[in-house]
Amino acid sequence: MKIGQYLLNALVGWIVGLLITVGFAFLWLNVIPVIDRTGQGATLQYTLIYILAWISPFAIIGGLVGGRLPKEGGWKNQIIASVIFGLLFPLPIACFLFWYTSW
Description:
By secondary structure, the chain is mostly helical. It has one domain. The protein is about 75% helix and about 0% strand. The protein is built from 4 helices and no strands. Helix 2 (about 45-70) runs antiparallel to helix 3 (about 75-90) and helix 2 packs antiparallel against helix 4. The longest helix has 29 residues, at about 5-30. The protein is elongated and about 50 Å long.
């Protein structure tokens, strides 16, 4: 497998992981409303940047793992697997971080 294919799988996993995290962030606010009564907490933008920084390595690893699984299916199946694993790897970490940051 060429280096370019590894980079493509990592990039696809990273982009999908960040998109699902941002989408989940706005869904999270509607499902579990959190009110910062003291006004001492971090703003939503800084919290989202913090979470995305933690999510990035897991999304990249998910893209790489997904790209390695279907060796016989061709590049299209490898991209699809990178998308699936790019979604699955960071989502539990994102849930924990949203709970931990009380967002």
